[in-house]
Protein 1
Amino acid sequence: MPIHPYKYFSPADAARVSKLQLHARQVVEGVITGRHKSSHRGFSVEFTEHRDYVPGDELRHLDWRAYARSDRYYIKLYAQETNLRATIVLDNSASMNFAGKFEYARHLAACMAYLLASQQDLAGLVAVDETVKAEMAPGSAPSHLDRLFRALENLKPGKGTDLAAQLHALAERLPRRGLVLIISDLWLRDAAEFARALQHLRYRRHQAAVLHLLDRAEIDLPYDKQVALLDLETNERVQIDPAEIRDGYRRQVEQYLTSVRRACGDSDVEYNAMFVDQPYDKALTQWINRR
Amino acid sequence: MGFQFLFTAALWALPLAGLPLVLHLLFRQKAPVIPFSTLRFIQSSMQQTAARRRIQRWLLLACRALLVALLIWALAQPVRKLSANLLGGGGSTAAAIVVDTSYSMMLQDQQRSLLQQADDDIQDLLRTELRDARVAIYRGSSTAPHLQPADTYRGDRWEALVPTPSPAPLIDSIDAAADMLTASGEDNKWLIVLTDSQTREFPRPPPKLGSARTIFIDLHPADSRSAAITDVRTDPAQPRLGIPAQIAVTLSGRPNDAQQVQLQIAPAGQAATTTSPLPLARFDATGRAELRWPFSFVDSSWLLVTAQLTSTESLPWAASRDALVRIPARQSAAVLAVGHPNPTAVQMIQLALDPSQGERPAWPLVVHDGEVRWDESLVVAILNQWPDALTLQRMTDFAQRGGSLVLFVQPGLEQDWPTLDAPRQQALTALLPSAPQPAPPDATYHASIARPNDPILAGTGDTQLAGDRLVVTRLMRFSPNSQTQAIVNAAPTDPDSGAELTGLLWHKKVGAGSVYTWATLPDRSCGNLRVWDLFPPMLVNSAATPGAMGEEATVNVDIGQPISLPAAIVPADAEVDLIPPPPNQRPVKVDRSGDRYTYSDTSQPGLYAWRWRRQDAQGGLLGWSNLQIPSAEARLTYRPLSEIAPDQANTIAAHSLEEVRQRLVQLAQPHPQWTLPIALVLALLCLEALLGAMPKRGGGKGPDSAHGHAAPRPASHLAASDSR
């Protein structure tokens, strides 16, 4: 029996990830009391505001000092803290199969799920290409993590990508005010539609973050001889002399990446580009520490 | 002219030019297939560069194919040679021969004149290269010839070349010959020019002939500066009897050389009477020299002044040169005193007009005493009072007829001007520069010469400072107008005196004569005019000097130019004959044309005598005309042949017919033309290198390393981890 039965998560990963803490940047709505700020007013220790007393309120929350000063009844309200409901959206398209991006993405997803569970937050998984290939509701129990890790192992790269449509659907499907973590190479047909999907998530008060996986070959086109490139999603084949088109290709890719970054920025979505030549744990640590 | 090849067999390898295409097809690269995330940007980039890449690839292929073809072409050793028919041969040939027959072609070189050399060369060409051609020979500025078979000019039918006057430059004949060749329909066209390349013959470049070839044969020897007389003249141009003049002789020759010149003066049409050896003419660094010989003409007649070089080195046609001079006869003069002038002033004027008082026969004027007859040439009137109407009428008539009237007016007379009746004022105003102006304030005036080139100052030497020596204290003011000219001005010595600059000596044309008005008197009370050094010669020059025949230009004329005679001097009902110079001195009847008799067939230099005759056998001499070779023929200024005929493909410039033949033989020999192939190969190599190098920019790596998980390349322009 192997010491660690999971292909995409190891005890070493657990040791490294357990030192990290992922905080929501904005208020979220959880199911239990946790370390994240809730949108609801509760009765914890952090005072937020007064409101008028209405019959039925507990008298212990009555602010007697305010009554003494103003001869009116006020109830003291406190900020409520809750746990985080996170959904990891994993791009399952065929383009992710280039340069080990899909493997890298599954490692990242596993680590993120473990990290969330370890801090009593809920972690779910949605694997999408043109359709939803796998979906697991958020949870934090060890059994949930076990199912999630195994689901990651069972995923196989799909064909095309329709990430924007899937994000639109997800935005409607998910409860409000959760964390949506998108792990993708973002080689999308329509960057504008992707931007609208992010805005949809934002409209639904979700906090979104994009982990953009890239290989340097996708940006630099570093081949120096004639090659025939095979599109992993369409199976289209093109023979090129890389040196002839390199400059134009770089220019266009750069413009595209800029548009993606701008779309994320416009929707107040965290954007983080990760090159797959960098170890995933290190990349993850850098991202979380930088937040 | 075209390309030929010494190694024609090499051209069979020309199909190898397709080798690059075959190699390209045979060794096409089998590109490895690499899975890639998306081809969207790849395809977009390819669309942007597709057209350029296609052109670049075709260019590269064409460049390489051309390179191979050019190397094969070079291996075949291309040569350029003239067509087989050099001067004739295959096809019909038209040749225009333009030969310079100007007098400068009489220059001797190797015991033959250049004209004889040209003559021999043309006959040689007609016998050999041009024997089957149609030929037109342009001799100087003669009428345009037509293309005729060469036989027409050979043997007894050949007219030897003789020097002819050429008023038009040779380039005009060359242009005409070029036009004729252009219009001709022969297969081969040749323009052959034989000349001594005098600069004046080529004021513009020769025409460019498209299909015809041009041969310039420059015959002048390398060292051809021989001595020549370029000009003979008198100074002043119209000498006066007994008045000292100068004979000026201008020469050209070898720089820093010296030549002996002899001067002869003889009555026109007679043997020389006076021979004077002049001092050695020493040429300056530019090859020019001028001799001046003082001479006093003592006979009133037509004189021929001849300057002659004694050296055998001189140009035969310019070794001597003439100047025909007419010394006018003595003219009568009289002095008219109106009023009561100072006798001293009258005497001073008489002495100025004739210092010897009739003792010297060689003096232009003879002054008679007593009453004025009004048939004199010159009348000097001293006006101490305004003349009466009769005198005024006589004065006016005298001037109208062509006499010269000199008036000295008494300053202060202007006060009496208002008292004169209108007809007298009008008659006086017609003679005077204008009506007298109010008297100027008392002042001292210094004279200045306003018109130093006026004939009245001829022969008086440098007049630049002479005016300042004349001081006038009293004068009469006249107002300038369009009919009068101030020859001498008087300017106040003291600018603050209130006086103004005014004319002192005025000239006015009245009818055929002239009126000179001195606004003062040669009297002590008016200044020092009576003792001014220019006063006597100016007074003598005031006398009318009618030209020999009305116009000096008809006296000394270049051959080829028409000579003419004013009809006014011919007696009524008379016919005019012109007697040419020896040997053929048969009179030629000259018809009147307008107000002149003109003769145009002036091809023979020498003295032409104009005579008149009537039916009653009366007759006489009217004058002479001297025709000479143009002075330009004596100035040998050659233009380099390289300037006249620049080195062009269709032009051969040589100094002899033998040299032309050598050049033609050289041109007929094949000359491998390496320059063009080498240049083309180098250009194509550069282009090939450029096209081949273009795809390499940007760098890259092999496909194998691109698919790996951890690419070893350093970070790209994107940050390793970019986050917001």
Protein 2
Amino acid sequence: MAVDRDTVTVGTELPALVRTTGFDNWNRYAAVNDEFVPIHMDDDAGRAQGFPGAFGMGNLMWSYLHNLVRDWMGDDGRIVRMGCSFRSPNLRGMTVEARGTVTAVHDEDGERVVELELSVVDHDDHDTVLVPATATVALR
Amino acid sequence: MPDSHITPQMLDLIGLELRSATSFPVTDSDIRRWAIAVYYPDPAPRLFWDAGYAAGTAHGGIVAPEDFNPFAWLTQTEADAGVVARAAGGFVGPEETLGLPAPATTAIINGGTEVEYGVRMRPGDVISSSTTLAEYKEREGRLGLMLFTTSLDTWTNQRSETVKTSRNTLIRY
């Protein structure tokens, strides 16, 4: 169910998207993105890069942020822009949580334009931010 | 450790095209599989696989998720050059692509991205990409001297409509 654009105000929170991540998720993403990189498939390769083991694709976190926003907007909404930084690795077995909060709302050309502060965090430790992000969306 | 990874020769590469590519036509199966993979284990939204449902939305038909990559699994550009499958292999950096030796770094991570979206990708679309080297920066980090390389990527469809423009940052140290 898409959000009712008339109810959106500064501070509105998007329903969180929660995923427990590991090879189930990463192998599926590798299969569609042709991204068979050892650090995402092999704990030894992850350790060789200085991490505790294999870790997930940054681009899959990027997709989770898009899923979060699309699920909230509904099919007729429009993502105008999105940006993110990749800060911490999505380690194997970690449950990640994509979250979002409305930071500004204004109307433009018949659309309700909404600024969002987004992040992917460790679900068990919200202070660990894997991917801080922002987005601008248009609700119709 | 060097004082700087950035050489005058590297700065001369700013603004040059790193690569360009044209996709094979996007199919509805490409979109459906992408959506199933990125939404797993939740079901993928019907907009991405149910033509009847999608026809009733503002899009008038199936569209791809904004994050969809039409350049996975070979491009028309590679096929035209005689490439039949991508070789597994190491990362080739922008400097090597443009004929310079790579900076003396040992690790590479995806620093982040900034994207502005235009029209949606749909089944049948042929997407072209042009990527230019935009900027070098560096700073000391926890893991040593870190080199930030930003590239600009513009995607257009077969009607020359902009699909997206991206600024992507690569971090090497």
